[in-house]
Amino acid sequence: MSSGQEAGSSSGGSGDGGAAAPRRNTRKPKYSKFTQQELPACKPILTPKWVISVFVLVGVIFVPIGLVSLKASRKVVEIVDRYDDACVPANTTDKLAYIQNPTISKNCRRTLKVPKDMDAPIFVYYQLDNFYQNHRRYVKSRSDAQLRDPKKANDTSTCDPEGTANGMAIVPCGLIAWSIFNDTYGFVRNSKNLPVDKKNISWKSDREHKFGRDVFPKNFQNGSLIGGKTLDPNKSLSKQEDLIVWMRTAALPTFRKLYGRIHTDLKKGDTITVTLENNYNTYSFSGKKKLVLSTSTWLGGKNDFLGLAYLSVGGLCFFLAFAFTLLYLIKPRKMGDNNYLSWNRNPAGR
Amino acid sequence: RKDFKFYGIALEIFFSFLSSVIIFQIMIPISLYITMELVRVGQSYFMIGDTRMYDSSSGSRFQCRSLNINEDLGQIRYIFSDKTGTLTQNKMEFHQASIYGKNYGSPLQVTGDSSYEISTTESSRQQGSKSKSGVNVDAELIALLSQPLVGEERLSAHDFFLTLAACNTVIPVSTENSLDLVNEINEIGRIDYQGESPDEQALVTAASAYGYTLVERTTGHIVVDVQGEKIRLDVLGLHEFDSVRKRMSVVVRFPDNIVKVLVKGADTSMLSILRREDDDELHNSLHAKIRETTENHLSGYSSEGLRTLVIGSKNLTDAEFGEWQERYEEASTSMTERSAKLRQAAALVECNLTLLGATGIEDKLQDGVPEAIESLRQAGIKVWVLTGDKQETAISIGLSCRLLTQNMHLIVINGSSEFECRRLLADAKAKFGIKSSDSGRDCQDIEHTHNGDVSKLRTSNGHMSESGIHNFELTGVIASDKSEYSEKVANFADTDLALVIDGSSLVYILEKDLESELFDLATSCKVVICCRVAPLQKAGIVDLIKSRTSDMTLAIGDGANDVSMIQMADVGVGICGQEGRQAVMASDFAMGQFRFLKRLLLVHGHWNYQRIAYMILYNFYRNAVFVLMLFWYILHTAYSATLALTDWSSVFYSLIYTSIPTVVVGILDKDLSHNTLLHYPRLYETGLQNEGYNLTLFWITMLDTLWQSLVLFYVPFFTYNISTMDIWSMGSLWTIAVVILVNIHLAMDIQRWVLITHLAVWGSIAATFLCMVLIDSIPIFPNYGTIYNMAASRTYWLSVCLIIVLGLLPRFLCKVIYQTFWPSDIQIAREAELLKKLPRQLGSRPASDIS
């Protein structure tokens, strides 16, 4: 956009007040640049050089960002292992009966091979597919007041159907807390345990302000239906980071949650043995469960979309700049030429 | 408990639908009405504050009395205007005269209030009797009148002004009535004249300015003060003006017992009764030359738009006088055919006259009226004049204010019966090839005309000739041969038409089934003048147009007679003038002069229309893009109508995040300066053609909205799918992105960036961040802390940036291509203005605008 001339230059004062009587002049509108709509202004118009400059500028900005983003994404090393089907015993015909039977052992052993060197910290995620944490009824089934204040323990009106059990209030109440994820993972490499650091996996603001340090689980998972993990009644909610992570509900039906961090570097070719308990029921709604080990960069996890999108848009802008340059060279139109006015193009008039 | 609150698939679908209705209700832009009202108030403020629409003579500023039709000013197709007090100043002024073949007064003379006096030996008496009415006097003519009464030229001048003073029905009213002989020596005082027509008043006033003052009138005599000497004239008979003879005459006896007839009338009727033969060859040649010169002067006066009269007189012999007196007395006392008998008596004396001269009277227009009408016409607006005055006066005004031009074909409808009106309408339509909505009937009319009696057609045409004005070329006799008829029709197709119709004809037309005929004829004419119309007929004419087209109408007037048409029109404009304030009280807008209408429509009308048109499209866009974004998300929530945005952000979106910029732009944005708009009146046609807002533009806008909403939703979707992103963080990303996108969308279209505009646009984005921070700082909300965590993420900002560029790229591209290869007139004028290619006289000084 180019700047036109300043519109502020105009004559002031009253030009034709001489003939009127002095008292009549009080009705005259007061002159100012504002009331006459003559404030100094920038008036942009799209000239060819500005159009081409805009496209080139966008290209120059977007292509490098795209390249850098794509490189960062490609740098991430990620191991994804789906285990919900593999951990079901071979002779099981009814997966739902298997997962709901507490007498059957849920232990499972998985082997992961490290494809590239993975620098610490290595993030451990569990991934759920086809789990609608964003369903309206699910999202609203919680009581933020109860989570913060022990005096509000009985404030369970928004938590149905998991507000009370056996006539007593559930803390923490609601479908979200009730359905907390309860699979566990242990990692062994070369016969040595890899410790998983489960501290600071939640937001600091959540731990300090949304989950009270004086609020303790009470009457949790005491109903006839068990939805997920049981909580330690002797730890306050602000220290139950698994709960805090789970209660920050996911935006989309396929999501990951942070389980913990491994602060040991992994080398290419290492074999990781995972000992996990396959406790969580995803078989009733055709969900999937996956274990993810991933490194991280400034961009976050592995995601090519941003890089590819930036490259595409930047490339398109370069192409458009080139195309418009050709167009303006081949078929120029003089700016502000009165011959292009419609009544000049058609001599007979409109 | 297994089926907690599950009511079956059908009911679940129904509940989901009801939830969606609640969530998506902002698709219907209820806030648009509030926004529009605010914008119109702002626009009205600037119209009222425009110093160029302030009338210093009456001390009245522009008024907006309606606050909901500002943009209609940008789409006016028809203007219905009163004449007296609206186009004119309700004042006639003596401008030029031709006496004994010599022209006095100059067309270049600037009218003013100064009188000119020449010292003479009788200056003291002359000053005492001079009228201070403000008539411009010609120095040369004053000098001639100061000479002794000797010579033909001097005598002609003497008789000329005596006729002006005597041949009328004006009553002098003295402000200081004094008949005392003692006071006769002193100044008599100011004399006002009251008459039935301002023409006569102007003539008598002019005569007084030149020293021939009418001081007394009774039924039997008049007294004229001639250069300080009183002359008593006995009035023996008076033939009033009528439209058949087109002249009036008075028979007077002078103190020396000479009987003369003094005549004034239209040139078409006067030139045919002048004396032609004389025994003296030299004298005859001189008179022929005087006549020719006078006729040239008359043509000049007419082309200047002046009203013309020819002055003549004759001495009556005793025999002529006796014969006339006998017929006159008989006619005056007659009970049957009085008018015809009076006309016959007049014919005895109104013949063989001596030509004294001619006059040109200006029906004094308001300043700038011809220029304003010319500009409005160029803008594609049709101007109709509806006046209660007689036909000749209306046509004269049409000429002087450039409504009518010399090369226009004039159609006159002045029938005195329904049958005659029907025939005149059908003839006019057939002659000029005007199609009616019923094509079958049109053919029938043509056949009927073709097969009609030639003599009747000739009579009809003759009638039109008789009614027409001398200056117009009327069409010849209708050819009976079909081929010639076709040729004539073809020839008329390129001619500008003007329609003149009188009130008595409208009585029949507006109450019968002739309305559609009149509509077809009138809308094919470039100009329509209605004369001798009653106030209700004015409203009927406005309704004739309103009920048959979707075009916008505007009525402008200054008096109580105009109230009905002002209220009938889509836009009513009142002029604060001499006739009180009824028109102003009934109007939507009020101003001091007609010429301000040019600025009101071409500048403010254009601006208001463009602003409102864009604002409506934009408001539909900003609500739709928000709703569609929510809709795409619902497709991924098991159709459960979940809102990712917090409740507060949903409310604030329309209220705080995006509303102020659209109001500020709606009030302050200008695509062209007022100088450019006044220089190119045809730019107004963008409003007439609905180029700012139409169905095509609406759907193109919706298509763009669809694209932007898809970009808004799916860029974050693909970025954060299979990630730890939570619902409230995603909501905050969408909120920030949609607000920035919507505001930059508006910024891309802003044509005039002033400081307030910057504050509104960027301030809204900043306000959005501020509100997000405040909302996410309240611990009891589930979205607590979201914005702080997201702002630290680089992916977040890269997503926002990608959304903005990718969302607006198609719009920008289409805009560039369209402006490059199919530029609109506004675009070209804007480029010319900003690249300083307009002529240099388009300075911003108010004087340029006024001229």
User: Which second-level CATH architecture of the largest domain in chain B applies?
Assistant: Up-down Bundle
> Helical segment tally of chain B?
34
- Class by alpha and beta content of chain B: alpha/beta
Outline of chain A: extended
Q: Can you give the helix content of chain B as a percent range?
A: 40-55%
Oligomer: heterodimer
Distance between the termini of chain B: 86 Å
Counting structural domains of chain B, the number is 3
**Low-confidence runs of at least 5 consecutive residues of chain A:** 1-25
Mean pLDDT of chain B equals 78
Structural domains of chain A: how many: 2
Strand order of the largest sheet of chain B: 1-20-19-18-2-14-17-16-15
Q: Please give the number of β-strands of chain A.
A: 10
Main β sheet profile of chain B: 9 strands, mixed
- Uncertain spans of chain B, ≥5 residues at pLDDT below 50? 108-133, 176-188, 437-492, 837-851
- The DSSP helix count of chain A reads 9
Q: Tell me the overall shape of chain B.
A: elongated
**What is the strand tally of chain B?**
20
Q: Give Rg of chain A in angstroms.
A: 33 Å
Mean pLDDT of chain A: 84
Roughly what fraction of the amino acids of chain B lie in strands?
5-15%
Task: Please specify the SSE layout and strand pairing.
The complex is a heterodimer of chains A (350) and B (851).
Chain A: H1 48-75, E1 78-82, H2 95-100, E2 107-113, E3 122-129, H3 136-139, H4 144-148, E4 164-165, E5 168-169, H5 175-178, E6 184-189, E7 192-194, H6 204-210, H7 241-247, E8 255-262, E9 271-277, E10 288-294, H8 305-330, H9 342-345
Antiparallel strand pairs in A: 1-10, 2-9, 3-8, 3-10, 4-5, 6-7, 6-9
Helix pairs in contact in A: 1-8
Chain B: H1 9-23, H2 30-48, E1 63-64, E2 76-81, E3 88-99, E4 102-104, H3 123-129, H4 139-145, H5 152-166, E5 171-174, H6 181-184, E6 191-194, H7 198-209, E7 212-217, E8 221-226, E9 229-239, E10 247-253, E11 259-265, H8 267-270, H9 281-303, E12 307-315, H10 318-332, H11 338-349, E13 354-365, H12 369-378, E14 382-386, H13 391-400, E15 409-413, H14 418-431, H15 439-451, H16 454-467, H17 482-492, E16 497-502, H18 503-511, H19 515-524, E17 527-531, H20 535-546, E18 552-557, H21 563-568, E19 571-575, H22 582-586, E20 589-591, H23 596-634, H24 647-657, H25 659-668, H26 674-679, H27 685-688, H28 695-720, H29 727-749, H30 755-775, H31 786-791, H32 794-821, H33 825-834, H34 846-850
Parallel strand pairs in B: 2-14, 2-18, 14-17, 15-16, 16-17, 18-19, 19-20
Antiparallel strand pairs in B: 1-20, 3-4, 3-13, 5-6, 7-8, 8-9, 9-10, 10-11, 11-12, 12-13
Helix pairs in contact in B: 2-23, 2-25, 5-7, 10-11, 12-23, 14-19, 18-20, 23-25, 23-28, 23-29, 24-30, 25-30, 28-32, 29-30, 29-32
Keywords (chain B): ATP-binding, Magnesium, Membrane, Metal-binding, Nucleotide-binding, Translocase, Transmembrane, Transmembrane helix
Subcellular location (chain B): Membrane
Domain P-type ATPase C-terminal (chain B): 584-824
